[in-house]
């Protein structure tokens, strides 16, 4: 099993090296593609020094657009999507491998441990969970998790991905509607948590907007009561 890893990154120079190094400790990871989504720091430089193939976008286009661009460069038969700020916990990708590699599921999604820092009040997660339940008839524990593993064939079949922070919800909806089998796997992954400050609320506001837009675009008749 040889895996290509796509890492969309925006101003992650302080964390992306450890993320890349942790991924390369897995014997299955043979290609790491970092899509620098218009960063103004040294993300592209440090990612390249860490051994990643770097695709640099001239402007910030959002997570979905970055992954759509990175898809053009995949060379292996399996694809993992990993956030840039996982650092050492990125190696927990190994827990997603067995259910997909053994053929029991088409996509594995990482479930994170409970957050340490108090964040928002759950509006984004609740919106995503409700939308997925309505659209797919399934209940997901981690509707916003961006850490996923699937075959290249499945990944390409789900393109183009939704823009911005709606990418995960859109991907899950499309995968379910296409009949792909999805499993959620408990991991010890961890990333930078947004707190109850202005920056955190602004981030969650953007998430809410993107998730809402994706849900309405994927099934506007079901959401007409909004």
Question: Which descriptors would you attach to this protein?
Answer:
226 residues, alpha/beta, Spore Coat Polysaccharide Biosynthesis Protein SpsA, Chain A, 7-stranded mixed sheet, 8 helices, 7 strands
Structure overview:
The protein has 226 residues and is of the alpha/beta class. It has one domain (3-218): Spore Coat Polysaccharide Biosynthesis Protein SpsA, Chain A (Alpha-Beta Complex). It has 8 helices and 7 strands, in the order E-H-E-H-E-H-E-H-E-H-E-H-H-E-H. It has a 7-stranded mixed beta sheet. The protein starts with a strand and ends in an 8-residue tail after the last helix.
Helix content: 25-40%
Can you list the strand order of the major beta sheet? 3-2-1-4-6-5-7
Oligomer category: single chain
The CATH class name reads: Alpha Beta
Q: What topology emerges from the helices and strands here?
A:
Layout: E1 3-9, H1 16-24, E2 29-37, H2 43-49, E3 53-57, H3 63-70, E4 78-81, H4 97-101, E5 107-111, H5 123-136, E6 148-151, H6 152-157, H7 167-177, E7 182-186, H8 198-218
Parallel strand pairs: 1-2, 1-4, 2-3, 5-7
Antiparallel strand pairs: 4-6, 5-6
Helix pairs in contact: 5-7, 5-8, 7-8
In short:
With 226 residues, this protein is α/β, with parallel strands linked by helices.
């Amino acid at each position: 099993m040889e895996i290509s890893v796509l890492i969309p990154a925006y101003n992650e120079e302080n964390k992306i090296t450890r993320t890349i190094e942790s991924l390369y400790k897995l014997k299955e990871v043979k290609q790491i593609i970092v899509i620098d989504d218009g960063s103004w720091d040294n993300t592209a430089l440090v990612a390249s020094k860490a051994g990643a193939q770097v695709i640099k976008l001239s402007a910030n286009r959002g997570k979905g657009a970055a992954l759509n661009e990175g898809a053009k460069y995949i060379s292996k038969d399996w694809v993992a999507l990993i956030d840039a700020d996982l650092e050492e916990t990125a190696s927990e990708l190994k827990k997603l491998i067995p259910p997909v590699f053994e053929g029991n599921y088409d996509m594995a999604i990482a479930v994170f441990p409970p957050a340490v820092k108090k964040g928002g009040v759950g509006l984004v997660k609740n919106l995503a969970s409700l939308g997925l339940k309505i659209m797919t008839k399934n209940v997901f524990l981690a509707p916003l998790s961006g850490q996923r593993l699937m075959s290249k064939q499945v990944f390409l079949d789900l393109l183009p991905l939704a823009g911005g922070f709606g990418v995960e919800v859109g991907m899950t909806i499309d995968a379910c509607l296409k009949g792909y089998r999805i499993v959620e796997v408990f991991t010890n992954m961890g990333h930078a948590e947004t707190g109850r400050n202005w920056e955190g609320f602004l981030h969650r506001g953007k998430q809410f907007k993107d998730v809402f837009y994706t849900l309405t675009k994927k099934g506007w008749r079901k959401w007409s009561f909004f």
